Amino acid sequence: MARVVSGSEILLESLKRQKVDVFFGLPGGAVLPLYDALYSAGIRHLLVRHEQAAAFAADGYARVMGKPGVCLGTSGPGATNLITGLTSAMMDSIPIVALTGQVPAALIGKDGFQEADTIGISLPSTKQSFAVRKAADIPRIIDRAFRSAVSGRPGPVLIDLPKNVLMDMAEPVYPATMGVTAPERKREFGDADIERAADMILESRRAVLYVGGGLVASDAWKELRELAEITHIPVTTTLMGLGAFPSHHPLSLGMLGMHGSYATNMSICNSDLLVALGARFDDRVTGRLNGFATGAKKIQFDVDPSEVNKNVRGDLSVVGDAREALVALIDVLKSRKTTPTPERRRWMQRIESWRGEHPLTYDRYANAVKPQMVIEAVAQRAADDAIISVDVGQHQMWTAQFYNFKQPRTWLSSSGLGSMGYGFPAAMGAQMAFPDRQVIAFVGDGGFQMTLNDLATVVQYRVPVKIVIINNRALGMVRQWQEIFFEKRYCDINLDFAPDFVKLAEAYGIEGARVEHRTDVPDAIEDFLSDREPRLLDVWVDPTENVYPIVPPGAALSEMVVEPPRVQVEEEALDDLWAV
User: Fold this and answer.
1) Residue 106 belongs to what domain range?
2) Is the pTM of this model over 0.70?
3) Which residues are catalytic?
């Protein structure tokens, strides 16, 4: 017979049975019973300095591990501070289990101190939200929450725990299934769908495999590579799909969409078949819908039937787990003895000619430090399995363009929500998942100021995250849009009054360095990556550099602007810019 224990002890034992080895949180009154039990529970907890960082850290952990990350906030503001991170995870289909404290059940609805309607607030930002009413229910709800987070289309789940539930005594019964978190995904496609997909692929001459984060979530990268190689079809990825296909592979086209390369976007515009694998045809990929891949038939593989025909109408949908569907498709193609055709070789030659016309590049001879140069230099010196995390903005796009990803689950980006402040805490979570791997956060000077207080966390727990600040002294992407689309009416984008990041890092006990000259970049990065301690590198880059290519709002992919206008920028104009 199980002994009678508190709800807090039941919760921690349930987490252990789910194989949770670390979670991220911040204590408060409503969850103090849980922290009291945590004192001797033998499960690791990282004290963050803001609950938003806890959610982002759980997100980073989940992306690299492929299993739920766990975060915790107390009632009221603790719970609401998690919402941005949960919304980001919801948009990107990342499995998180968020635990929130709540006022005692007798006070719910009576505006008690630090009460918030956490269930109501969280519903649009989660797959499911559970309100626990009895301590004995905790194991069952934890089991359901972890299963829900990874099953079907993955996403965040929230469990709201009143203080009295954490204190109540109960005799727990743990489901035998706890810890078995294999995703449950319905198969809605049939053999006829796979046969038809194979027919469409074999009939095409200018096909493209368009790959999103859903393929990463299903661990189907080996099948993707096999499919590409047996059919000789090139592969483009969304921002979420980076790492699913090796960047150096001859069939790799890199990223498509608003900041995709000229060759990639032209291949989409001229394709006759687009095979979407775990991708949802979002607006940053398609540009103007009536100009997107107009000559191509479209096959959509997706686990979520609500995504089918939502943005772009397809010719065939295959609803189910991407890996299961690809295994079936490859078997059919192999049975037909698929070989690369002359048309497919000519298609790749045409794509190579587009690459030659407008390659992804930048001014490699400029006196100023170019951000693309910094990213390339880090990529050349980082380990093959290094995990790269980014904030949102120009540096995010440059990293997507110029960092060569060799392995899956090495790319962390708040892609759908686009939340600034994501990069550093997500890297912290990834580092806790893989303590012995390199984890590098590329952050902007704007986004970093939103979560830099967690420098204290990496020092306290000796988390050896490497932080590269791409410092252009501005909200760079906002400045770029004001320059291009708002006739250079620069308004409130100046970040010249940021702290001295090197001194700030040193104040926290972290070694920092600043780079202002291009000749110093290689040695600085070599030193920066040389040890297993948290480090910060503040790189002052050219503040006038913009991200190209760019597909303007409302334009089609074929209407991308591939390079900036060739005009001389006067020094006095720069002075005016930074005087804003």
Assistant:
1) 5-170
2) yes
3) 51, 113-114, 163, 477
